[in-house]
Structure formats: structure tokens, C-alpha cells
Design goal:
Subcellular location (chain A): Cell membrane
Number of strands of chain B: 2
Organism (chain A): Planotetraspora thailandica
Pfam families (chain A): BPD_transp_1
Largest sheet of chain B: 2 strands, antiparallel
CATH class of one domain in chain A: Mainly Alpha
Distance between the termini of chain A: 44 Å
Low-confidence stretches of chain A: 1-14
Protein name (chain A): Sugar ABC transporter permease
Oligomer: heterodimer
Number of domains of chain B: 2
Shape of chain A: globular
Strand content of chain B: under 5%
CATH topology of the largest domain in chain B: MetI-like fold
Helix content of chain B: over 70%
CATH architecture of one domain in chain A: Orthogonal Bundle
Largest interface: A-B, 112 and 106 residues
Number of strands of chain A: 0
Low-confidence stretches of chain B: 1-21
GO biological process, one term (chain A): transmembrane transport
Shape of chain B: globular
Structural class of chain A: mainly alpha
Structural class of chain B: mainly alpha
Mean pLDDT of chain A: 89
Mean pLDDT of chain B: 89
Chain lengths: 287, 309
């Protein structure tokens, strides 16, 4: 125990007495219980029957782990097509953000040009405007181009963001200029310097931007709701919201749907925790 | 035009003559995609919202200029004031989660083994679809057979219809809002905690300060810039709350919905359900003003409590 404490706080092993970490763990475990109980309750509900769910008091444990809820969900909801729409929109948004923001961010950080500061100021102003202020105009644009209910309509506004450009500019600003100058002395052009020298160095920030964009795209409800009026090409959040209207109180099916639709991103998060945390820490999540 | 290009080619690195340097033309190529996107998809829509807020925009046909009519109607609309009150109340409740997040972040920082596990568990709601979260909590809040009422019954507390009863709806949403935001707040505050020099704790430890004293005299002041940042973000996000109300109230319970709309829900309803886009635009502009005032107010107040060492 003493050994593990020493490992915990290298250099200051004398500060913490091993006996005193258990109250901390106790408080944290209680808090964690608040965090996970809803998920556990959701998972237990998935395996129950509708009759079991509406019993008073509720049965904690499912009687016979019925898979009926999944069957109902998959037979009534076009899950895979909704998944494809969500994944397609996410891919387009992330790819767009990375390319567009990295290019612009590099120029703002490194290439002085006339009007650059004014233009960057405009990006900053747009960064501070809440997303709802753009919805009416964006909707009008999509409608006038007759793109309602299409995948590009879902994805295109999210491919651009003042935030991405700002984040990338900050990243490029902190990089040492030596590598660029060395590459330029070797005869590399602007784009080559950008692509072979700067982009590799910016990889952690690009990862953070991808993760934030992906998270936002996957969870977004309001924009898809607006541009998918017919219900074709619905991403998962819209489809799941529709399920609620359809199955009002069939809680096992609703919980199964909520579980299945959330799981892909949860799995990605578990694989890429470090990038998620870095993304959030570098920026906060802009709503 | 050539002049401009050569001039700026020379400007950046005069000391290295003969080496090709990035110029204005390449800057244009780099910046064009982002700028076109910004103008077409953000700047223009923003200006169009501003213009429409002074217009009567029918679902089909041409808009007509009506001056400040939308705004005067809005200010006389009881629904609008109710929505504003609901959004403000929700925001205040969500802010109560910040002290909780500060304490939890400090505790997690003290833990060696298991820190990663705690972070992941607190973060789960952030990566779960908000729609799914709304569905799960609606079930937990269910007045007849929900988990919350069941647990309360162990303590002899009477169950309530937490979502359907307008007296409780916003509080019920606020609790979910705290729960959802904790993961993000913990990560940002955790990064702030790691920036605090460990030597301060060592020195005060030698002077005999206990953990609680260290928390109030070292951690809190030095963390205050991060707490301020988290507060700003939380207020902006809370004032834009939409998903929970959409999923927990719409098509489920109409009486609670009329009483519990938030500003953004009201905006969505007017602009995209009833297609009164001029009126909707006015609501959006008011939302912007509310967020600006709230943010400015916090920057004003920070002087009294944020410590920049």
C-alpha cells in the first residue's frame, strides 16, 4: 500500500497517508453511482417485458431476459439506413472541417496578407454567435437549392466552422518556425511546407477537432429535424425521437432503441478516450 | 494586382532573400474555402435572420417589412416571458452543478489508480445521444412506475409526476442538465488543476495545512479562471437547451409543454413548426441579446472572484 502511494505522487510520497484515500474513493463511488444508475436501469429495462416494466413497485431484475425489445426495434425502425445517414454525415463533416480549418488556420497563423486581421475578426465574431441564429438562413438556402431531405443538406453547414479555423490557427501559432524555414530553404513551396511539415505537427489538434466535430454531428438533433421534413434520410437522433412518438410507453423497446443508437459513439469514445478529453479540454463544447 | 502580390511576398521574411516565401495569392487559396463557407453558411444566414426579424414572412410568397412589430408582439407575448423564465431557471439550476464539479475534480485529482476509470464513467453522458438520455430520464421520472419515485418511496417520500407536473418540469430537466454536463466540466477543471504547481501544496503541507485548507486557499483561487470558463460555457449551453424538452415533452404531455417551453424550443416552434419565420427570427435575435448580456455580466462579475496569479 505504501509502495503504491509512492508511485501515485512521485517526489512527494510523504504528503499522502495511504489510509486517507478511502474516503475520497467512497465519495467518488457514490457520485459515480448517480452517473451510471440511469444506464444500468436502461439496460435492465431492455430485457424486461412491457408488463414487468409497468408493475408497481417496479421489478429490479428482469424475469427471463427477453430479447423481444430488440426484435421490435429492429423490425420497425430502419436502423441501418439511419446509421448510414448518421455515419455519412459525420464523415463529411469531419473531413470538411479538417481540410477547411487546417488550410485557413495555417494561412491566418503564418501568411500575412492584406485584410487578414479584419477577416479573422469576422471569424471570431461568428464564433460567438449561437447556432440558432443561422438556422433560418441555412434552411432557406437548403430549401432554395431543393436539397431538403438529402445527406449533403445534413452535412454541409457542419463542414465549416469559425471554431475549427480558430482552433487550428492557435495550434499553428504555437509551432516553432525553424522546420518551415528549413523546408523552404530546401526548396519546398508553400503547400508542400503546409502538407509535409505543418500538418503532421498539428495532428493532435486535428484529432481533437475531429472528435469534437464528430461528437457534435452525431448528437445533433435540431438541424436534422429542420432539413429532414419528410423523414427520408433521417439520422439516428431524429429516428429515435420518432420512435418515442410511435411507441409512447413501450419502454423496453424505447430503451433498446436508445441503447443501440448510442452505442456506436460510446464504443468510439472508449477507444479514443485521450482524443476526446484533449478535444474537450482544448475548447469546451460549443453548443 | 501583381504589385500587391510581390509586395506581400517580400514582406514576411526580408532577411532571407532568394528563398520563396508564402504570398498573398497562396493565402487566398488557403483561405477561400473557409471564407466562402463562413459567408454563405454563417454570415449571410445571420444577416438574413436579422432582416427577417423586421419582416412578416409568410410560409409561401414574399416578405413584407413591418418594422419592430415582431419585437413588440414578442414583448407582449406571455409565452415568450414564460420561456425566458424557464430558460433562466434551467440555467441557474445547471450552475448549481459547478461547485459539485469543482469538488469532484479536486477529489479525482487526488486519486492515483482509478482516475481514468472515474473520468470515463463521468463522461459517459457526454457521448450518449441527448435524445437517448431524454428517453431514459423520462422513464426514470415516470410518475406511475418510474425508478425515482420507487427509490423515494424507500424514504417515505411521496412520488410525483416529475415531467408532467409543470411545477417540477424545469427542475427535473435541470437535474438532467447537471448530470449531462458534469463530464465536460470535470475535464476542463481537471486540466486547470494540473496546471497548479505542485510545489505550492508541498510548501503548505510542510507548514501544516490540511487538505481542506489547501483546497480553499490554493486550489480554489488558482482554479478560478477555469471555473469562470466552465461557468461561461455552461450558461451559454443552458440558455440553448432544446433536446431534452423536445424529447421529454413533445407529443407526450401537452399541458406541461405549454408551461415548460424554453427560448430555443419556442424559436423552433415558431420558425419551423408554424413557419412564422419573421417572428422566429425576432426570438433568435432576443436569444443572442440575452446570451450577450449574460456573458457580459459574468465578465463584469469575474473581477470580484477570479484570481489571475
Amino acid at each position: 500500500m505504501a509502495e503504491s502511494t509512492a508511485r501515485r505522487a512521485p517526489g512527494i510520497p510523504w504528503r499522502r497517508k495511504p489510509s486517507r484515500t478511502w474516503p475520497i474513493h467512497a465519495i467518488l463511488l457514490v457520485s459515480v453511482a448517480f452517473m451510471v444508475v440511469p444506464f444500468i436501469w436502461q439496460i435492465l429495462t431492455v430485457f424486461k417485458t412491457t408488463a414487468e416494466v409497468s408493475r408497481i413497485p417496479p421489478a429490479i431484475w428482469p424475469e427471463e431476459f427477453s430479447l423481444h425489445s430488440f426484435e421490435t426495434f429492429f423490425s420497425t425502425v430502419p436502423f441501418w439506413s439511419m446509421f448510414a445517414v448518421s455515419a455519412g454525415s459525420l464523415t463529411l463533416r469531419v473531413a470538411g472541417q479538417i481540410v477547411v480549418a487546417a488550410l485557413a488556420g495555417y494561412a491566418f497563423a503564418r501568411i500575412p496578407f492584406r485584410g487578414g486581421n479584419v477577416l479573422f475578426g469576422l471569424f471570431i465574431v461568428m464564433l460567438m454567435v449561437p447556432s440558432q441564429l443561422f438556422l433560418i438562413g441555412q434552411y432557406q438556402l437548403v430549401r432554395d437549392l431543393e436539397m431538403l431531405d438529402t445527406l449533403p443538406a445534413l452535412a454541409i453547414p457542419g463542414m465549416f466552422s469559425a471554431f475549427g479555423t480558430f482552433l487550428m490557427r492557435q495550434a499553428f501559432l504555437t509551432m516553432p518556425k525553424d522546420y518551415e524555414e528549413a523546408a523552404r530553404l530546401d526548396g519546398a513551396g508553400t503547400f508542400q511546407v503546409f502538407w509535409h511539415v505543418m500538418v503532421p505537427m498539428a495532428r493532435p489538434t486535428l484529432a481533437a477537432l475531429s472528435v469534437l466535430t464528430g461528437l457534435y454531428s452525431w448528437n445533433d438533433l435540431l438541424w436534422p429535424l429542420i432539413v429532414s421534413p419528410s423523414g427520408e434520410n433521417r439520422p439516428l437522433p431524429v429516428g429515435l425521437a420518432g420512435l418515442q412518438g410511435q411507441f409512447g410507453t413501450d419502454y423496453p423497446t424505447l430503451m433498446a432503441g436508445a441503447l443501440v443508437c448510442s452505442l456506436p459513439l460510446v464504443i468510439v469514445f472508449l477507444l479514443l478516450q485521450r482524443q476526446f478529453f484533449a478535444g474537450i479540454a482544448s475548447s469546451g463544447l460549443k453548443g | 494586382m501583381t504589385n500587391v502580390a510581390t509586395k506581400s511576398v517580400r514582406r514576411p521574411t526580408g532577411r532571407r532573400t532568394g528563398v520563396s516565401t508564402p504570398g498573398a495569392w497562396s493565402a487566398l487559396a488557403f483561405i477561400a474555402p473557409a471564407t466562402i463557407g463562413l459567408v454563405a453558411l454563417y454570415l449571410w444566414p445571420f444577416l438574413s435572420t436579422l432582416v427577417k426579424s423586421f419582416e412578416d414572412v409568410p410560409a409561401f410568397g414574399d416578405a413584407t417589412f413591418v418594422g419592430v412589430d415582431n419585437y413588440t408582439t414578442l414583448l407582449a407575448d406571455a409565452d415568450f416571458w414564460k420561456a425566458l423564465r424557464n430558460s433562466a431557471l434551467y440555467t441557474v439550476i445547471v450552475l448549481l452543478g459547478i461547485p459539485v464539479a469543482v469538488v469532484l475534480a479536486a477529489l479525482i485529482e487526488q486519486v492515483g489508480r482509478g482516475r481514468a476509470v472515474y473520468r470515463v464513467l463521468f463522461f459517459l453522458p457526454v457521448v450518449t445521444l441527448p435524445v437517448a438520455i431524454g428517453m431514459v430520464w423520462r422513464f426514470i421520472y415516470n410518475g406511475d412506475f418510474g425508478l425515482l419515485n420507487y427509490v423515494l418511496s424507500w424514504f417515505g417520500v411521496d412520488g410525483q409526476f416529475w415531467v408532467a407536473d409543470p411545477r417540477f418540469t424545469i427542475f427535473a430537466f435541470g437535474a438532467v442538465g447537471i448530470w449531462m454536463g458534469l463530464g465536460i466540466n470535470l475535464i476542463i477543471l481537471g486540466a486547470g488543476l494540473q496546471a497548479i504547481p505542485k510545489a505550492l501544496y508541498e510548501a503548505s503541507g510542510l507548514d501544516g495545512a490540511g487538505r481542506v485548507r489547501q483546497f480553499f486557499h490554493i486550489t480554489l483561487p488558482l482554479l478560478s479562471p477555469s471555473i469562470f470558463f466552465v461557468t461561461i460555457l455552461s450558461v451559454i449551453a443552458a440558455l440553448q437547451m432544446f433536446d431534452l424538452i423536445f424529447i421529454m415533452l413533445r407529443s407526450v404531455n401537452n399541458t406541461a409543454l405549454t408551461d415548460s417551453k424554453t427560448i430555443v424550443y419556442l424559436f423552433y416552434e415558431k420558425a419551423f413548426v408554424q413557419f412564422h419565420q419573421g417572428y422566429g427570427a425576432a426570438i433568435a435575435i432576443v436569444l443572442l441579446i440575452v446570451i450577450m448580456i449574460a456573458t457580459a455580466l459574468q465578465f463584469r462579475l469575474q473581477k470580484s472572484w477570479v484570481f489571475y496569479g
